[in-house]
Write a structure and sequence with these properties.
Elements: E1 2-3, E2 9-14, H1 22-25, E3 28-35, E4 40-44, E5 46-47, E6 52-57, E7 65-72, E8 83-88, H2 96-100, E9 103-105, E10 112-114, E11 119-120, E12 122-126, H3 130-133, H4 136-149, E13 153-157, H5 194-209, E14 213-217, H6 237-251, E15 257-264, H7 269-281, E16 288-292, E17 309-313, H8 323-329, E18 336-341, H9 356-367, E19 373-375, H10 404-407, H11 412-423, E20 432-433, E21 443-445, E22 451-456, E23 462-463, E24 475-480, E25 485-491, E26 498-499, E27 507-512
Parallel strand pairs: 1-8, 12-13, 12-19, 13-14, 14-15, 15-16, 16-17, 17-18
Antiparallel strand pairs: 2-6, 3-4, 3-7, 5-6, 7-8, 9-10, 10-11, 20-21, 21-22, 22-27, 23-26, 24-25, 24-27
């Protein structure tokens, strides 16, 4: 079989024997060996209903042949000791992730890069409830809007996490939702429904067609969907870990980020169990980390090998708190940092965290050291509220008078989405806060000093430090971060100590001699 580099390929297997507990009782995997390098990648398989198991693989090499052989803990000739070969055929043109490979953490662990080293910046939305509420038509509308605005990732609860949520098993009816585990309502994860995940495959395919990476959270530890007793804190850790392995098996041969813990303290035993399982089975080194509740230190498992990033949460009161990001950045050993949940736009009250508030928040968090990326959220969108009058949602979190479709058009999303476009193509790997080289309160520099980025809330001339001006980049662009438009550009003379701007409006200075 011919395959393309970094494109998911699926192998199917049919069991010849009966297995009473196919999800919990069968472990199956395959080792893929590359010729001529000898590289070996192990990928887990997953049960997909009936007697069917599937195995998904993406070739990280542009050429060569991958020979594979299955193995497992069952005596079944339909599943184990199966063999084959996959021949990599380079593509003349391909989407971004097939050209450059999946995301991983940078050499300095501060930012994202593609597998080939190309810099990347997370620009994420929060549509937490999309997996169990959205239809394919909904997902197409959503993905087209977010891709057009510049988003490249979305935070998703992989299953509806509230044990006491009630409603019809229907994505189109008020209070309805689909179910991934029949026993999640009892605090267990053993009775998996393959049809739910087959449906989710289609939704994630739609996101992938728009280069939007799913940030998959297994089972929430915090508020959940409606605050009705989340299962993520009570399921047995071994069941949580098994589910994390399942997510790696089903979705790990495509671009993905694993958000193994969310909205809790980070110390819940399920999180470490899940993180260790992801580390053991993820052949591609895709990022894995934790997103915290608003109160706490946001540094659990800081030294763990499975942990790649820490995301704080600054709550939903409409305050700018970039010091939370700056504080996390000081933790050692070094991990990627971002504010994973600023105030949702219009959450609970029209105007809260609205409009340019979101742009200022994102640029401030980025420059404070949240260099993994930026995250946006909108009230009524994250819950996937079907329409403006759908009942039974917590009023504090919904946008008054809005369903998910209206929330999609909130003004602030445009400003956050623009950040990735403003910085695209620049050497943003391992940027660090820079307080020294210019009189700008919010600024970043590349490790080699050739790139300097400053966000100046009210604009005005950028004044350089005379002591370091000799090494300051001379080429500059001044942009309006509300539109992404360049308002001026040029090359500063060696003896000039200012980058000009008239002031009176937000500005981003990009100074780069590359």
């Amino acid at each position: 079989m011919n395959i393309r580099p970094w494109r998911q390929t699926e192998l199917s297997f049919t069991a010849e024997n009966r297995h009473p507990d196919p999800y919990t009782g069968v472990e199956l995997w395959a080792d893929f060996t590359h010729e001529p390098t000898g590289t070996v990648l192990r990928r887990p398989a997953f049960w997909d209903g009936g007697s069917t198991w599937r195995l998904r693989f993406a070739a990280p090499a542009a050429t060569g042949v991958w020979s594979w052989r299955t193995d497992g803990d069952v005596d079944d000739p339909g599943l184990v000791s199966r063999t084959g070969e996959l021949t990599v055929v380079p593509a003349e043109s391909a989407p971004r992730f097939e050209q450059h490979g999946f995301w991983r953490m940078s050499p300095g662990a501060r930012s994202l890069v593609h597998a080939d080293g190309t810099p990347a910046l997370l620009v994420a939305d929060t549509a937490w409830a999309l997996p169990w509420r959205a239809t394919p038509d909904d997902a197409r509308v959503y993905a087209a809007d977010r891709a057009a605005k510049g988003f490249n990732a979305v935070l998703l609860m992989s299953v509806q996490p509230d044990m006491h949520a009630r409603g019809p098993r229907d994505r189109t009816e008020d209070e309805g939702f689909d179910v991934g585990f029949e026993d999640l309502k009892d605090g267990r994860l053993t009775r998996l429904d393959p049809a739910y995940f087959q449906y989710l495959d289609g939704l994630l395919d739609i996101l992938g067609e728009h280069d939007i990476v799913p940030v998959l959270q297994p089972v929430f530890q915090g508020f959940g969907w409606k605050g009705r007793s989340v299962a993520g804190t009570v399921v047995p850790p071994e069941e949580y870990a098994r589910y994390c392995r399942y997510l790696v098996a089903r979705y790990g041969a495509r671009p993905v980020i694993y958000l193994v813990g969310a909205d809790g303290s980070g110390e819940e035993p399920q999180i470490a169990a899940g993180g260790e399982e992801i580390e053991a089975w993820d052949a591609y080194g895709q990022p894995c980390g934790v997103h915290y509740r608003p109160h706490g230190r946001s540094r659990a498992h800081q030294g763990a090998d499975w942990l790649d990033f820490q995301w704080c949460q600054t709550g939903h009161s409409g305050e700018h708190l970039p010091e939370r990001v700056a504080d996390m950045r000081r933790n050692e050993p070094v991990k990627g940092v971002a504010n994973g949940e600023p105030t949702y736009e219009n959450s609970g009250a029209t105007g809260k965290g609205a409009g340019w508030w979101q742009g200022h928040e994102a640029w401030s968090n980025l420059c404070a050291g949240g260099t993994m990326g930026v995250v946006y959220g909108a009230g009524s969108l994250w819950q996937w509220r079907l329409h403006a009058e759908e009942p039974d949602h917590e009023p504090y979190f919904i946008a008054p008078g809005c369903g998910w479709r209206e929330a999609l058009d909130f003004e602030g999303s445009r400003y956050v989405g623009l950040i990735g476009r403003v910085l695209d193509g620049l050497p943003t790997t391992d940027l660090r806060p820079d307080w020294d080289r210019a009189m700008a309160g919010r600024a970043l520099s590349s490790p080699d000093g050739t790139l300097y980025i400053a966000y100046v809330e009210h604009g005005g001339p950028l004044r350089l430090n005379p002591e370091t001006a000799g090494t300051f980049p001379r080429a500059y662009r001044v942009l309006d971060p509300r539109t992404g438009e360049t308002v001026s550009q040029g090359v500063r003379r060696a003896d000039e100590l200012t980058v000009p701007d008239e002031g009176g409006a937000p500005r981003v200075f990009v100074c780069h001699d590359g």
